[in-house]
Specification:
Elements: E1 3-8, E2 11-16, E3 19-20, H1 22-32, E4 39-44, E5 50-57, H2 62-68, E6 75-84, E7 89-98, H3 105-121, E8 128-132, H4 140-147
Parallel strand pairs: 3-5, 7-8
Antiparallel strand pairs: 1-2, 4-5, 4-6, 6-7
């Protein structure tokens, strides 16, 4: 287990690497390969030692997914983002790192330190990474601009 140490003011904080629940990968396969899901939201377990699936769903309305990310707690998420490129429908799997400014510092640090390992564990099928600290950074139009490299309309 890897240990990262940080100092915040006069406090020394240790952040440990976290395990990944096998369910994280099996549910991701339902989204990626089987195309049964539209989104997955992942969170750290209550003891902050394991990444687990919090919720998954097939609701295609992006605003529903957006509202599932909590106001004051970090999360990871994967969303199968669909848009019209002008030449037809396109789909891009996006990995979200949601870390609101008001989230507890320790939680933000654990999420930040495990993000790369977790994302990499999902394989090379992630097309874009979306980092959000407030709703404006994850709204549909902002993500659309990033995913389509500014070439698509809604």
């Amino acid at each position: 287990m890897r240990v990262l140490e940080f100092t915040i003011g006069t406090d020394r904080v240790c952040v440990y690497s976290v395990a990944i629940s096998p369910e994280c990968h099996s549910v991701f396969q339902q989204l990626h390969q089987e195309q049964k899901l539209k989104y997955i939201i992942y969170k750290l377990s209550d003891d902050m030692k394991t990444i687990v699936v919090e919720k998954s769903g097939s609701e295609a309305d992006y605003s529903v997914f957006e509202q599932l990310l909590p106001e004051q707690e970090p999360r990871y998420a994967v969303y199968d983002f669909e848009y019209d490129s002008g030449e037809g429908k396109r789909k891009k799997i996006c990995f979200y790192s949601w870390s609101p400014d008001d989230a507890p510092t320790r939680a933000k640090m654990v999420y930040a330190s495990s993000k790369s390992d977790f994302r990499n564990s999902l394989g090379g099928s992630i097309h874009a990474e979306i980092q959000g600290t407030d709703r404006a950074e994850i709204d549909y139009d902002t993500v659309l601009a990033k995913v389509s490299k500014g070439t698509a309309g809604r």
